[in-house]
Write the structure tokens for this entry.
Amino acid sequence: MDIPKEEFLAPGHRGCAGCGASIAVRLALKALGKDTVAVSATGCLEVMTTPYPETSWEIPWIHVAFENAGAVASGVESALRIQGKKSNVIAFGGDGGTVDIGLQSLSGAMERGHNMTYVCYDNEAYMNTGIQRSGATPFGASTTTSPAGKASFGENRPKKNMPMIMAAHGIPYVATASIAYPEDYMKKVKKAAEVDGPAYIHLNQPCTTGWGYNPSKTIEIGRLAVETGSWVLYEIEDGEFNVTYRPAERKPVKEYLKPQKRFKHLDDEHIAKIQEYVDAQCEELGL
Amino acid sequence: MVKEVMTSNKAVAEAVRLAKPQVIPVYPITPQTTISEYLAQYVADEKIDAKYIKVESEHSAISASVGASGAGVRVFTATSSQGLMLMHEILFAAAGMRTPFVLADANRAISAPLNIWNDQQDSIAQRDAGWLQIYVENAQEALDTTLMAYKVSENPKILLPSMVCLDGFILTHTVEPVEIPEQELVDEFLPPYKPEHSFIDTETPMSIGTFADPENYLEARHDMQVAMDNAKEVIQQTCDEFAEKFGRQYGLVDAYKCDDAEIIYVAMGSICSTIRAIVDELREAGEKVGLLKIRAYRPFPVEAIEEAVVNCDKLAVVDKNVTFGNGGALFTDIKAKIHKDAYGFIVGLGGRDITPKEIKEIYEKTKNPVKEVTWIGLKEE
């Protein structure tokens, strides 16, 4: 696959070295091209790319608040269509802005059938405020509000299954993706934009600061998430489910957990439990 | 020109039809609901060429409104009470992002206790959001003000959203004769919205709703204050233009028999009709009394109020809201800005009837004051 050279997210933004969120946006916009309007929820992405009077966005961009990207995108999409404009509408929300505080607004937007794509860039905690747990934080991860301690092994609940919640809305396109698999991700963004109606992409996005790994390893960690089956790449097109990438041989989950500070407190028992979760998930998804 | 008998909610819907917004995100709530129904029907019947967004909450109604207005189209939404409270956060964003759309608020009490009847606590609680707020007295004024609100908000010197406040049930569900202006004249008065900036142009992309640090935030907020100050002049100009075209004159305030009055009632909304009748009655009995109706609550028309009350001795300020631990909001504003002997009266919260007898009681209690703030109509222990 040819990845276009043209960038629509200018460098010089305030993202951390090794930031996965900027990769998430750059790839999506390369897939969509210039005729695209973006909406952001409050979060790392919004703050790091738009410190007034500067902006990294080379396409029209709007942000209103944390919990309403779905609704803002609904308004933008409606205004575009009534003016006869066919531009792509893409909304970016972090996991907090999507699976927690923005869930209602997003659900409404999807149910109403707006022709738009929503990308949840999931780094599995509230990173903008300094690594607090969200509904997308995985079992066993230590965050500042689900810290490991004497009586705690970190987050005690598994991740909310957001893509399936979106699929339950009966929208034409739902996919999972990873920034570490750019071709798969970009293909999905393109498909999402091409379908008539709402599309949702849940994107695994390693975060060097929040997950605690060397900033040069963002893609490696993203790959390990998929290679271990901790994150499964699939799409649901008009209700038809397909896994889009199958690791030749699934690696033990320990290889994914070990390089990350957020999991370093886990003992063998917890790791075994996570392996069980992952095995069950892979079985359910036919991996 | 057609004259029809209708509720204020219908009058607002008619104004919206005439104003031709292109996006209408709206969520039903008592007593605003019929506005959302009329507009849905108008869109269904192609009486309005607009996208009606069937949002899942008021929070999304206001959020979609900001998105659509930012994208350069005329937008209308409406709500009431709890719905306006749910919008609260985004009301500030709408003003800060300078999106000039119009919201009609069917004034209703705030929970708890849960209550669907009229007072003005809901909109008063939003007074610091950066919205223009106009309170109307009857159905005709509801229609006319909705049209004028677009013209004021969209003025490049303003670019702030407007809230048209109409008393729940007393206006929203009561029928009155209303003149419906001709579309052609409305089109002349309010041409299609052509914003100077719309962020969605992919040839000259803009970022809106950015983050601003302490080096920039203060100026952005000050710009809003300047716009609010400009709004006093622009509202008056727009009222004059409206009068020229449609023959009905409005202003920032409406003074009734104030010139030689010793005591002046100051009030907002439908209660002004009752007070006006009492003013006539008291005048017949030889009392020198007047009424100052406040239409524009934000911007607060200090100069217009000063001018109207210059000759009087005392003000009886009537509030259908309370700022707990202080008086009513209008009363405390008047006390802060107008150098007159003023007394505050809290009335009608949660839809309690305000009788002519009580309006006279307010007059008596201003003439012979006992305390600064009095709650009228409280049941005896």
Notes: The interface with chain A takes residues 22-23, 25, 49-51, 53-57, 59-61, 63-73, 75, 89-90, 93, 97, 199-202, 205-213, 216, 220 of chain B (CB under 8 Å). The longest strand of chain B covers residues 102-107.
